[in-house]
Every structure is written in C-alpha cells, then in structure tokens.
Amino acid sequence: MNNESKTILGYPVTRPFLVSGPCGAESEEQVMQTAIELAKHPVNLIRAGIWKPRTRPNSFQGIGDIGLQWLKQASVVTGIPVTVEVSNSKHVEAALKAGIDVLWIGARTTVNPFTVQEIADSLHGVDVPVMIKNPVNPDLELWIGAIERIGKAGIKHIAAIHRGFSSYEKTIYRNRPNWEIPIELKRRMRDIPLLCDPSHICGKRELLLAVSQIAMDLNYDGLMIESHIHPDQALSDAKQQITPSQLGELLGDLICRSHSIDDILTLRMIEGLREKMDKLDFDMLDLIAKRMDIAKAIGQYKKENNITILQAERWDEIVQSRMQTGLEKQLDKGFVKKLFELIHQESITQQAEVMNKKVDVEVRNNQ
Ligand code: PEP
Ligand code: MN
C-alpha cells in the first residue's frame, strides 16, 4: 500500500479507503468481536447488513433494528464510523435515528428508480454520506440515475460501489465484473469516488486478492470487503467472507500503485509508448475506413446483381481465419471475435445503406 491521502465521503484517508465488516450483523458478540479485530487494520468504515435483501424467503433476512445498536456500540469501542444498507425510507429513518455514520444502497435497490427516489426524498436536508452500489443488471444509466437522484436530494458526499453484475451464464465469478461499466462511470462522473466490492464479485474468498488488485490497478479509490470473526459459520455469504486477520494479509499482499508518474525517466518512457499507441490508433482508423469503402463497393455489386448482403459461409470463414491469426499473434480469441463482429455489423449497415439509398434514388426518379 502507499500513502496518497485525500478525502473520501468527507473522511481524510489514504488509499485504499477500506470498508469492512460482516455481510450481516448476527449477534452483539459477532459484531463487536469482528469490529475489535478489524480495528487492528487500516479500516475506515465498518459495515454490516441489518435488513438483508435475500433471494429466497427462508434465508436469513437480517437481524433488524437491534443490529443498529450493536453497530453503534462497536463504533464507540473502536472509534471507527459505521455503515448499513438501506432499502427504503423506514430503514433511512431508523439508521439516522441510531446515529449511523454512512448509508449504502444495495444492488437490488439501485435497480428500482421508485425506491431510490423514496430514499432520496427521505434524505432531504440530511447531511449523511451515501454509497451507491451498481444495479444487479449491467445498466450504467440506472447506476448514474441513482447517483443523480441522491445528489439532487442535497447529499454532498456520495461514492459508487462496483459489486459486479448478475448473469445467467455460469462464470468463475458470482457476479461478473464487467470492468468497462465502472470505468465508463468514472469517465462520466470524475468526482464520485469509486470503490470495489470484490466479495460480491467473487463469491469465494480465494479470488478476493486478484480482483482487489485489478481494482487498485484501475485506480479505484477503495474497497469494501466482507469479514466475519468466524466466516464459515456466517448466516449469509459464508464462502466469500474472511477473518479480519486474513483481511490484514490481503492488504499486505496488495500493491497500491501511484496514479501520478513522479519519476521523469518513467514518465518519458510511458509518453514515448503512448505516442506510438496514438499513432497506431489513427492507423487503425485509416484501415477501418478503407475496409468500409471496400464493403460499400461490394454492396454496390451485390445490389446490381441482386445478391443478399449476408453470406453466412463467407462470414464463418472470416471469423475462423481472423481468430486463428489472432491466436498466432497472442490475441485473445474472444476479443478477436468481438472485434470482427463489430466490424462486420458495421459493414452490413454500410452495405444496407448503399442498397437502400439506391432504392430511394430509383423511387425518386420514378416519381
Ligand atoms: C451486501 O453488501 O451484503 C449486499 C447485499 O450486497 P449487494 O447489494 O451487492 O448484493
Ligand atoms: Mn453479502
């Protein structure tokens, strides 16, 4: 870790801003012991779910309002502020009444603009920091919309939490990271600190370090990692929780690289490489434009000879040969496939335009 200090959610911190604590508050003892152990590490905020949004009705639904007192007590003993998940205005009211320091909106709530608005309305005139998780589905606009709603309520300190996206397909992740979505969020909302929740992305503790490291390398501001004094006995999300001392080990292994380049030699090297990269990007655009011109010329022949645009065998041949060459050049097969699908889709659009324009012209000429 390194010492780049700034303010996150109104708290002066060094990167990464660290939120940790159990998935759910289960007993007074579990909350207190976890908090006392967490206080031995650079934890900025202690978390625990009190009202748990669970997929099935017979799972542990959270301990309810009593957990707020346990958390507050843990905060008094450790001196670390605390945060809970709120999913409606009643939760907000109870959390604020109990003096909870920071609120967070969970992934299942961010999906629903009505609920986010209800929470925003209950926050009018209140000065409490709010963290907003991405919606369960990969919809950036919904995430931005939730951030805007809370911002419009007058909340000054807002952070976004990336916890991954659910997908029907089975992957190694519990929730696919889709890194491009939080990256685009950061581009569009520069001032919103971005935290990563590797626990809900991974679903299993073995992957936590690797995903946390990616987040740090992408210059995330912080991490939310679930920890429990006895993870295997946890009433929810047992497989992804770690003990506070395992959290300490993870932090020790985490390399927190600097965002700014201070060393002049390194800076020159990187600038030189970036120049080369910029040139290649423009060369690529030139090549793609030339390829599109050829596609349009082919479209013209197809039009004149009454041939369909889509020729499945030709497309199959393109995908196979490009993927094979890509492999020889150490390019990922999936990446090459996606790239050519995109290029092919655009060729089809261009050819369709050539054909339809022609039709338009003929129609106009016949009028
Ligand atoms: C949680 O943080 O325990 C939780 C319920 O997370 P999410 O909203 O990301 O599913
Ligand atoms: Mn959880």
Summarize the structure.
The chain folds into two domains: 5-253, Aldolase class I (TIM Barrel), CATH 3.20.20; 264-365, Up-down Bundle (Chorismate Mutase Domain, subunit A). It has helices at residues 28-38, 66-78, 89-97, 107-110, 113-122, 140-152, 180-188, 198-202, 208-217, 244-253, 264-304, 312-328, 333-366, and strands at residues 5-8, 11-14, 17-21, 45-47, 82-85, 102-105, 130-133, 158-162, 194-196, 222-226.
Protein architecture, described:
By secondary structure, the chain is of the alpha/beta class. The protein folds into 2 domains: 5-253, TIM Barrel (Alpha-Beta Barrel), CATH 3.20.20.70; 264-365, Chorismate Mutase Domain, subunit A, CATH 1.20.59.10. It has 13 helices and 10 strands. The strands form 2 sheets. It has an 8-stranded parallel beta barrel with strand order 3-4-5-6-7-8-9-10, surrounded by 5 helices. Strands 1-2 form a two-stranded antiparallel ribbon. Mean pLDDT is 93; it is low at 359-367. Bound molecules: phosphoenolpyruvate (PEP) and manganese (II) ion.
| CATH architecture call of the largest domain | Alpha-Beta Barrel
**Strand neighbour order, sheet with most strands:** 3-4-5-6-7-8-9-10
Find the structural class using helix and strand composition: alpha/beta
What share of residues is helical? Answer: 40-55%
Features:
binds phosphoenolpyruvate; 51% helix; disordered C terminus; Chorismate Mutase Domain, subunit A; 13 helices; elongated; two-stranded antiparallel sheet; binds manganese (II) ion; 2 domains; 8-stranded parallel β-barrel; 10 strands; TIM Barrel
